[in-house]
From TrEMBL:
MF term (GO), any: mannonate dehydratase activity
The enzyme's E.C. designation: 4.2.1.8
Cofactor(s) required for function per UniProt: Fe(2+); Mn(2+)
Class of enzymatic activity (EC top level): lyase
Family: Belongs to the mannonate dehydratase family.
Name by which UniProt lists this protein: Mannonate dehydratase
Metabolic or biological pathway: Carbohydrate metabolism; pentose and glucuronate interconversion
InterPro entries per UniProt: Man_deHydtase, Xyl_isomerase-like_sf
Coiled-coil regions listed: none
Entry keywords, A to Z: Iron, Lyase, Manganese
HAMAP family documented for this protein: UxuA
Biological function: Catalyzes the dehydration of D-mannonate.
Catalytic activity as recorded in UniProt: D-mannonate = 2-dehydro-3-deoxy-D-gluconate + H2O
Length: 375
């Protein structure tokens, strides 16, 4: 069981807090200051791994012995030149790929086992309200279809620049916004087929390095899983996931199966996806969302009956298959005043993710150890 952590000074949650969540062993981390396309330095990687796996003098003095591991990285972001198959934002795709290979090698040396990434054009997940009130008084991430239909990327950028709703989405950091016009032009006319071809080229270059250094790659599905602003998304549906896996036969090329993202299309069956792709799932995010029938959805607590994602069925499928990969709770609600007090990163407060981990572990234990004693 893993827990995402954004790093010292960059997260409202501390490693000491994560250490006290029962069953959580793995910190899911990244070097968040690294721009896509850059090679990560070995020294910075080693320093972060040492921080995660070590114990402070203070903790030692208090008799703390429990260790966390740093085996999962989320994410090493893929530069737009790789997705486009051409030079963009001042970087050629081969240079960006070479840097990706270097980063994988260095992460392997530091003991990292799985690297998550996504292949979405231009930006990461999209929501229209990051602090949407729920009936219990907590807040959660919310997606309103009509708002997205009215939006253009430019209007979204203007809203973020105005800072009005505090809407800063991942992949829309200021340095990316500055180069948005170039990116928009570069994606003009790019098709899904073009993206698959560029994706295959990337895998052919990177997977041999993954094999050599024992680092598995897991692609995160598009969130939400359909095209937005006319840009081609290629990791959305079950058929897409199958096609993506077929791009390279190596077991080192697999999925970070995010069931919340996948289920944002109400026609998708999360449990079926788990069973279908089991042997290529290296890492999985489990979270629940509730649909309103008009394309809108809200994120909710992890328990199955809170929303439309069968989180218990998902854990049952993993338990029955004897899944040995990594899992983490995904976005949580913001609880117990944390959004008004320390204002966590949207979706990444402490409490609801800790509760989510316990729910998932409870389901896992029940299904994993069901049956006669000794079975
Ligand atoms: C994550 C994604 O916060 C989230 O929803 O699941 O942002 C994920 O980290 C990236 O898409 C993977 O590159
Ligand atoms: Mn996810």
């Amino acid at each position: 069981m893993g827990f995402r952590w954004y790093g010292e000074g960059n997260d409202t949650v501390s490693l000491d807090q994560i250490r006290q969540i029962p069953g959580v062993d793995t910190v899911v981390w990244s070097l968040h200051h690294k721009a896509a396309g850059e090679a990560w330095d070995q020294a910075e990687i080693d320093e972060q791994v040492a921080r995660i796996t070590g114990l402070s003098d203070d903790a030692r003095a208090r008799g703390v012995t429990r260790r966390l591991d740093a085996e999962v990285v989320e994410s090493v972001n893929v530069h737009e030149s790789i997705k486009l198959g051409r030079t963009v934002l001042g970087r050629s795709r081969d240079e960006a790929i070479e840097n990706y290979r270097t980063t994988i090698r260095r992460l392997g040396r530091a003991g990292v086992k799985v690297v998550c990434y996504n292949f979405m054009p231009v930006f990461d997940w999209l929501r229209t309200d990051l602090w949407h009130p729920l009936p219990d008084g907590s807040t959660a991430l919310f997606y309103e279809q009509a708002v997205v239909e009215r939006m253009t990327p430019e209007s979204l950028i203007a809203e973020m620049e105005a800072g009005a709703g505090g809407l800063t989405l991942p992949g829309w950091e200021p340095e990316r916004l500055a180069s948005f016009a170039e990116l928009r032009a570069a994606y003009e006319g790019v098709t899904h087929e073009d993206m698959y071809a560029a994706y295959r080229y990337f895998l052919e270059a990177v997977i041999p390095v993954c094999e050599e250094h024992d680092v598995k790659l897991g692609v995160h599905p598009d969130d939400p899983p359909f095209d937005i602003f006319g840009w081609p998304r290629v990791v959305s549906t079950k058929a897409d996931l199958a096609r993506v896996l077929d791009l390279h036969p190596s077991p080192y090329h697999g999925l970070t199966l995010c069931l919340g993202s996948f289920s944002a299309n109400p026609g998708h069956d999360a449990v079926d996806a788990v069973r279908t792709f089991m042997d290529r799932i290296h890492f999985t995010h489990v979270r629940n969302i509730k649909h309103f029938g008009n394309g809108d959805f809200t994120e909710v607590g992890h328990r199955a009956c809170e929303g439309d994602v069968d989180t218990t069925g998902i854990m049952r499928a993993y338990a029955e298959a004897g899944y040995t990969g990594y899992v983490r709770p995904d976005h949580g609600r913001h609880l117990w005043d944390e959004n008004t007090t320390n204002r966590p990163r949207p979706g990444y407060g402490l409490y609801d993710r800790a509760l989510g981990a316990q729910y998932l572990l409870g389901a896992w234990d029940a299904f994993r150890y069901a049956g006669p004693p000794g079975a």
